Amino acid sequence: MQFRNPTEETALPTYRIMDADGKIVDNTRDPQSASDEEIIGWYKNMLTVSVLDLIMFDAQRQGRTSFYMVSAGEEGVAVGSASALTPDDVCFLQYREQGVLIQRGFTLKEMMSQLFANKDDHGKGRNMPVHYGSGKLNVHTISSPLATQIPQASGAAYALKMQRLINPNTPERVVACYFGEGAASEGDFHAALNMAATKSCPIVFVCRNNGFAISTASIEQYKGDGIASRGLGYGIDTIRVDGNDIFAVREVMREARKLALSGECRPVLVEAMTYRVSHHSTSDDSFAYRAKREVEEWRRRDNPITRLRKWMENKGIWDEDKEKEARAAIRKQVLQEFSAAEKVKKSPLRAMFEDVYEEITPEARAQMKELKRLIETYPKEYDVSQFEGGSKTLE
Ligand SMILES: Cc1ncc(C[n+]2csc(CCOP(=O)(O)OP(=O)(O)O)c2C)c(N)n1
Ligand SMILES: [Mg+2]
């Protein structure tokens, strides 16, 4: 009789291609599965996320937006994994994956429209900032209750599989489902993995293990070998990858996608190890629960953007001048879209009552009428001039 003790087992290894100095450590994998132009494109997309983050964080501090979430340190996981997907693949995001959206072609205008909840926002301004979504890009709208997207993603992957069984001419597609290691403590995570495994769904689960669930450090979140060990428990092909190494993330995602579509289809779990450099959100001050020095250390020692930059410089395709030029161009573009989106009117107030049922129900109609009465009775308290059509649309 032998009880297996997890502390006596060896931890799952972490796959990497490039070290923190941008040097290739695994020559069996050619980082050049893409052209120089494409790699520079990923780099610029990571820079875009990082520039956008700085500007939007400050905008919240100035009171120009209500909320924002920064993804500093995790740009490599998002951009690298998305670079391995096809436009037909379906994505479910948590909220710290702006890089996935940018890599898939979500424009800065779309981003700003959502952040300012103006009338160009796909969600008609009904959501908090950062809850992006795009039907065109096959990205389901982000929702705040943690982990709800994971079983939805398994279900969507099952639907994709059924679709191809019914009509084999439909393109091969996978679902890419992103979440944090904290969300993996929710029951939904377990139900989703088990469902995907037992139904052999074509899905790649991408867990961003960034060391924190708001103020709870990962060491207090679980006792086992990270999130990867759970995949094995559910009978799922699993790999742990260095999330700050964009080449490794991309290669892992390419293989995972292939695996997910092989044979009868199957799920794959990728645990990407990284570090949340930023505060959790604009509502958080992380120095209340972690040392500033720790963050500075990470920022200095390892970062997905500087790693790729070093690699590109070693290869002679990037230099200080190109860096300055790219940063200035991105900053200009972000600021342009920022000021344009800030001036656009909000969706008509009526949009609050629409799109739930085909027709507005009598109850909702009564509420709409009451809202109009309140707004018109207290015009000083309710300035609705920034909403297209003012209170007139509530009729
Ligand atoms: C069901 C639910 N519980 C709690 C929260 C509050 N909450 C928002 S984000 C978060 C931490 C999530 O951590 P993780 O999944 O690791 O993602 P990260 O923020 O590190 O990217 C918590 C507890 C929530 N949004 N939903
Ligand atoms: Mg986390």
UniProtKB/TrEMBL annotation:
EC primary class: oxidoreductase
Alphabetical list of InterPro entries matching this protein: Alpha-ketoacid_DH_E1_comp (IPR050771), DH_E1 (IPR001017), THDP-binding (IPR029061)
Keywords annotated in UniProt: Metal-binding, Mitochondrion, Oxidoreductase, Potassium, Thiamine pyrophosphate, Transit peptide
Function per UniProt: The branched-chain alpha-keto dehydrogenase complex catalyzes the overall conversion of alpha-keto acids to acyl-CoA and CO(2). It contains multiple copies of three enzymatic components: branched-chain alpha-keto acid decarboxylase (E1), lipoamide acyltransferase (E2) and lipoamide dehydrogenase (E3).
Organism: Exophiala bonariae
Localization terms from the record: Mitochondrion matrix
Keyword Metal-binding belongs to the record: yes
Source taxonomy: Eukaryota, Fungi, Dikarya, Ascomycota, Pezizomycotina
Family the UniProt entry places it in: Belongs to the BCKDHA family.
EC number: 1.2.4.4
Entry protein name: 2-oxoisovalerate dehydrogenase subunit alpha
Chief localization: mitochondrion
Gene Ontology CC annotations of this record: mitochondrial matrix
Catalytic activity field: N(6)-[(R)-lipoyl]-L-lysyl-[protein] + 3-methyl-2-oxobutanoate + H(+) = N(6)-[(R)-S(8)-2-methylpropanoyldihydrolipoyl]-L-lysyl-[protein] + CO2
Residue ranges annotated for the Dehydrogenase E1 component domain, each copy included: 44-347
Cofactor(s) required, per the database record: thiamine diphosphate
Record GO biological process: branched-chain amino acid catabolic process
Any one GO molecular function term: metal ion binding
Alphabetical list of Gene3D superfamilies matching this protein: 3.40.50.970
